[in-house]
Amino acid sequence: MTVIEGHFLDGLSSKRIAARLAFSPQQPQLVTLHLDHQADTPTRIETQLKDLRIHSRLGSTPREIALADKQLFITDDHQAIESWLKLAKSKQRSGWLHKLENSLPTICFATLATAVALWACFTFGIPAAANFIAFKLPEFAQKKLASSLVLLDKTIFQPSELSAERQLALLELSQPILANYSELNPKIYFRSGMGANALALPNGEIVFTDALVNLVEDDKELLAVLFHELGHLQGRHIIRRVLQDSMVTLVVIIATGDIDTLDLLTGLPTLILDLSYSRDFETEADDFALHAMHQHGIHPQYFATVMQRFAQLDNNSKKQRAKDKPLRDILSTHPPTSERIQKAQQHAPTTAP
């Protein structure tokens, strides 16, 4: 008689009872389960192998054998179970899944394949999906995702200190350009705050800060920035970024299966992915701006010049952090300024402005 040690669960409570599964090598299909409620009162359950459901082996976790009425026999003696099933010529023996789990080459291949799949998902899948969804969203959904200028006025911006005449002159200069992109519903506003900057909100609002207006020496440099912001609107970059951030978070949750570790796992890796996406959007907006400037007869040197002004402004304010430049380059949301200037100069005709 062959005996396999384990525990019995009656299906009514979580209490485990010491038990022994016994069978004869001559008749392995006939099974007797000996239960020890107390040392002097053993209980027997007689059954047949065909009436048992033997769960597949999963690593070193205890093996479960299901009896009638939700009863279970549990054992850690995997080798004895496999020998019994082999002797009985049962089809419930461990299959290909267990063999794969114990194959080092298979484990290495699966790990590599998972890493490649995640890389492809973050690099190609998520941006492509966000791009597709962004251009399918109805207008009301875009506005729900978008930050409004009203909210920014409450938190970041102050009223512009530019004179009414200066604002009117810039609006009149920009109006013919905005009219050519009426499908984007662009509107220009001036605000104080955020330093020398500009931003485009998904509802078409484009904000120029006072510091940016005061930074340039030629208004055509502002037009170069305007074209760049129109590029963000055309590409629906803010909406795509919101969608991509959400998808990255969702993929991390699915991959780990544990939302409690989300803050840790979506820290630096998610930040770097997000900044990488931002650099892609900035490159798209630059390409749009240079192409549009050419169409409107504005020399791309104005784009290069305003980029140089941004670079000089950044250098003046951050000289003390020069030793951290490699890290700032990695974590920059914009492509390197030198690359942007070089691209503008490559678009320039032989005649200077």
UniProtKB/TrEMBL annotation:
It comes from Dasania phycosphaerae. Binds 1 zinc ion per subunit. Residues 343-353 have a biased composition (Polar residues). GO terms for molecular function: metal ion binding; metalloendopeptidase activity. GO terms for cellular component: membrane. Keywords: Hydrolase, Metal-binding, Metalloprotease, Protease, Zinc. Belongs to the peptidase M48 family. Residues 194-346 form the Peptidase M48 domain. GO terms for biological process: proteolysis involved in protein catabolic process. This is M48 family metallopeptidase.
